[in-house]
Design a protein that fits this description.
Blueprint: H1 19-24, H2 26-50, H3 56-76, H4 79-83, H5 88-104, E1 107-127, E2 141-157, E3 163-166, E4 172-183, E5 192-197
């Protein structure tokens, strides 16, 4: 199934705003209006999903499994299995990452410590393919942006098996923001990774 190929309205943290500024300045009123509009977009996309049987608990379980499996396949360099779990554009990006990593390290060890510490939805949006009527709500993709906070283990090795980076005996706190996408009009459609939002170092 062909993906739109972009993250529609990528998530970004909103700048904190004080109570007084929000309710007693013109810019604050405009910000409040924008915040309400963003939440309405989230609610609309989720409502569209629920019509096709969406369950947050079930999706979160599936998302964690995808997060774990995609990271594991990346560590193994298994591009063949990775292809079906990500969109076309994401696949090209991950192939380049694997190639770059393999030029530096011979192999890597990666482990997710379960259960994850936190998972939450940051944004929900509807997107359409270029060339498809954007007002045709029967032909859309749903994109859900999720935050994962987890502990992980990582270690990298050279061709001789010597450790050159990381420490698999040490758990590291990792925050990732991933965007998952699902077609609402392809028979047999399933969730795939379509993008990742950069997280600032130390922003946990």
């Amino acid at each position: 199934m062909l993906s739109p190929g972009i993250i529609y309205e990528p998530y970004g943290p909103r700048e904190p705003i004080s109570f007084l500024r929000r309710w007693f300045t013109r810019n604050g009123w405009r910000r409040t209006k924008d915040d309400i509009f963003l939440e309405l977009k989230n609610a609309y996309a989720i409502a569209k999903l629920r019509k096709s049987g969406y369950s947050k608990a079930k999706f979160y379980t599936e998302a964690v499994n995808l997060y774990k499996e995609i990271n594991m396949l990346m560590a193994l360099g298994d591009k063949t299995s990775l292809r079906k779990m990500v969109t076309e554009q994401m696949y090209s990006a991950l192939k380049s990452e694997i190639k770059l990593r393999e030029s530096r390290w011979s192999s890597v060890y990666w482990e997710l410590i379960e259960p994850v510490i936190k998972i939450r939805t940051l944004r929900a949006r509807m997107a359409s393919i270029i060339g498809v009527d954007k007002d045709d709500l029967s032909k859309v993709f749903i994109q859900l942006t999720l935050e994962f906070l987890s502990k992980q283990k990582f270690e990298a090795y050279d061709a001789k098996g010597a450790v050159v980076a990381g420490n698999k005996d040490k758990e590291v706190l990792v925050r990732d923001i991933w965007v998952f996408e699902k077609s609402q009009f392809h028979p047999g459609a399933y969730w795939r990774l379509c993008g990742r939002i950069p997280v600032k170092p130390g922003d946990i």
